[in-house]
Design brief:
single chain; 2 domains; nine-stranded mixed β-sheet; alpha/beta; TIM Barrel; three-stranded antiparallel β-sheet
């Protein structure tokens, strides 16, 4: 086990990574170039899970020299947030819902993040005036029935500020559902205080969608934080990114999905990696992802089955990627064991 710094502090600098045994001294100058472009943060709870710098936990958060290699297909804004932002902090991609990004600060900075060009410890906190402009836009668009708080990580807000946002959204008559997307329960579970949980109170349908990519992220502390949310009658969904070296084997993916279900978290989305700059080392081809899920069909409960999705580059929305079991032309289906059958169940 790598011994993190015993300061209880988040690691943000290359020199701290080296001191914690998460980077080699000879890599220092090159990693400084990575750090100048992309933010680094590894909070204590996540440090404690790292067994080696290149293990499935360390790989997600420790800077790597490969991040400076930009592939031709990679884009600074791979899912078109900027083009679909009518006012600061709002992204409107689908007719009935909108994103509200009140800040661009996270408890940790994933090395594969699709917003990695924008997020960081100093960035993106909306002013009161900008928030009022965002609320006005939402009020003026009655087709919006759902607001997704994202960022950054909304649970990095103070309870006072988060509570004010929740009250403002709850006061808009046509908003029926509020979602919070977060990494906090696994990355910084100590933040899930009674005050923060109180701030999430609303009379609207409230959902928490938490991001986790490996079974080890469900530490006892993380499970306690998740249970505290659930105790407030807030259902928790799970979303993950399919990542090379993290969850790209049948056993690793199965363990992740089982860990979610055991924590009463319903696996929601398994995302195909978005082509953000410098993330090619995490890429798993779609055909391989489809085969992984097909391998798990019939092997894990349907409660653990996520929707495998691609967020089409350019802001064109998410689409499911399968795997497919129906052959409409031949009027056959493939069973979980791979046998092709007619729709009446007989072998084809």
């Amino acid at each position: 086990m790598v011994n993190p710094l015993k300061t209880g502090a988040t690691l943000r600098h290359v020199r701290e990574l080296i001191a914690a045994g998460l980077a080699r001294p000879e890599e220092g100058p090159a990693l400084e170039a990575v750090a100048e472009r992309y933010a680094t943060a590894i909070p204590p709870a996540f440090q404690a899970l790292i067994e080696s710098p290149d293990d499935p936990i360390g790989r997600q958060v420790i800077p790597a020299l490969s991040e400076l290699d930009i592939a031709p297909h990679e884009q600074a804004d791979p899912i078109g947030d900027d083009a679909l932002s009518p006012v600061p902090g709002i992204v409107h991609r689908y007719a009935d819902r909108a994103l509200l990004k009140p800040l661009l600060i996270c408890p940790l900075y994933c090395r594969f993040c699709f917003r990695r060009e924008h997020v960081g410890p100093d960035g993106g906190l909306l002013t009161d005036d900008q928030l009022e402009t965002a609320y006005a836009w939402l009020r003026d668009n009655p087709a919006i029935r759902e607001v997704i708080l994202t960022g950054g990580d909304p649970l990095m807000l103070s309870p006072r500020r988060l509570g004010a946002i929740m009250r403002a959204l709850s006061d808009i008559a046509h908003i029926e559902t509020i979602r919070i997307h977060t990494r906090v329960p696994v990355a910084a579970p100590e933040r899930m205080t009674p005050a923060l949980l109180d701030a999430m109170e609303t009379d609207r349908a409230m959902w928490l969608v938490m991001h986790a990519n490996h079974a080890r992220e469900f530490s006892p502390e993380a499970r306690h934080a998740i249970r505290a949310v659930q105790a407030r009658a807030i259902p928790v969904l799970g979303q993950s990114v399919l990542l090379r070296g993290v969850n790209d084997t049948p056993d690793a993916l199965e363990a992740l999905l089982r860990a979610m279900v055991s924590a009463r978290v319903k696996p929601y989305y398994l995302h195909q990696l978005d082509p953000a700059p410098g993330t090619a080392s995490f890429h798993v081809p779609i055909a391989e992802g489809r085969a992984l899920l097909a391998n798990l069909r019939g092997r894990v409960t349907g409660l653990a089955w996520p929707t495998y999705v691609l967020d089409i580059p350019g802001g064109h929305g998410k689409v499911p990627l399968g795997p497919d079991y129906l052959d409409e032309t031949a009027a056959t289906v493939r069973d979980p064991a791979g046998t092709r059958r007619h729709l009446n169940g007989q072998p084809a």
